[in-house]
Structure formats: structure tokens, C-alpha cells
Design a protein that fits this description.
The structure is a single chain. This protein is mainly beta. The chain has one domain: Jelly Rolls, CATH 2.60.120. It is 7% helix and 51% strand. It contains two helices and 14 strands. The chain has helices at 11-16, 119-124; strands at residues 2-3, 23-26, 31-39, 43-55, 58-65, 70-73, 77-78, 84-94, 97-105, 110-117, 128-131, 144-145, 150-153, 155-158. 37% of the residues are buried.
Length: 166
């Protein structure tokens, strides 16, 4: 299992800046956040996961390649409050390279466990964002440099089934 806070993503950098502890935070409706990560050897991803917060709404989580093409997503699913959410996906092989893990939701009542960062830090970490029309990640988004204060979602990929997740 790999998270966006591992050394294969932005974990080392987040630790170095002593970022705030994670918190349950409201999200901006129809805004996707993309967090870079690296795969060093070929892996097969079986699940995508994130820590939900309180609130309602629908969300989607997925993986993009470095060129900005959606490889796989869970599709929009109703939010489950305050729990580790495990989304089943078609088994997806990732070869060595750079990818982005993305998450979006359809309304501001949806909350997510995240670590707050400023615009400057988000840009330095290589975070990207885009606007979506709903809780569905788009195939080829119009990426923008991280331009708003928001949090880094607590999310990741799993190469095995998680035990005890929803």
C-alpha cells in the first residue's frame, strides 16, 4: 500500500515542512486535486483508498499518467462518513514512471481528511487542480498549477485488499 505521504510521493517534503496534522475539512465542490507519485517497479493496483470526513455527497478517486490521461477511476460513489474508504477498481498495471492520484467531490458538504497547505507549498510539491462538472473525474483534464489554499487528501493505492475498510 502506498499513500501520498510516502517517500514515493510527497511524504518526505511534507515532513520537512512540518505540515499541520490531518483534519476533517470541507472540500470545494467540483474541484479535483492531483498529487504526484512515482512507481519504481511494475505493480498491479487493486484498490484506491482515502480517509473520508463528515458530510454528504459523491466523490471519485483515480489515477492519471504523467501526460494527464485518466487510466482508471472508481467512478462517483456516495460518500461514507469518517472512515477509511476502499474503492474497488479493475486491476490496473502501472509501469515505472510518474503518475497522479486524483480526488474530486460534487458538493461543499463533502468532507475529506486532509493536511492543509498554502498555495506556495502546494505548487512546490507539484500539486495540480482542475474543475470538474460533477463528482466524476474527466478523461483529460485541463490541469492548472495549484492555485488555491486547500488540503492534501489522505489517499493512496493498494496492491492488495485492505482489511476492515468500507
Amino acid at each position: 500500500m502506498t499513500s501520498v505521504f510516502s517517500d514515493l510521493s510527497i511524504g518526505t517534503e511534507v515532513a520537512a515542512i512540518a505540515a499541520a496534522a490531518p483534519a476533517d475539512a470541507a472540500v470545494t465542490a467540483n474541484r479535483a486535486v492531483y498529487v504526484p507519485f512515482v512507481v519504481n517497479e511494475t505493480v498491479t493496483v487493486l484498490k484506491l483508498w482515502y480517509y473520508s470526513g463528515t458530510g454528504t455527497g459523491n466523490s471519485d478517486i483515480g489515477i492519471y499518467n504523467a501526460a494527464g490521461t485518466l487510466l482508471i477511476s472508481s467512478g462517483p460513489v456516495a460518500q461514507t462518513a469518517s472512515i477509511l474508504v476502499e474503492r474497488d477498481i479493475a486491476d490496473t498495471e502501472l509501469t515505472p514512471g510518474r503518475y497522479y492520484l486524483a480526488w474530486t467531490a460534487d458538493n461543499a458538504n463533502t468532507h475529506l481528511t486532509s493536511t492543509a497547505v498554502t498555495q506556495a507549498v502546494g505548487k512546490a510539491l507539484g500539486l495540480l487542480q482542475s474543475t470538474t462538472a460533477s463528482a466524476t473525474l474527466v478523461t483529460t483534464p485541463s490541469w492548472a498549477v495549484f492555485a488555491v489554499n486547500t488540503g492534501i487528501p489522505w489517499m493512496g493505492i493498494a496492491m492488495r485488499t485492505l482489511v476492515g475498510a468500507a
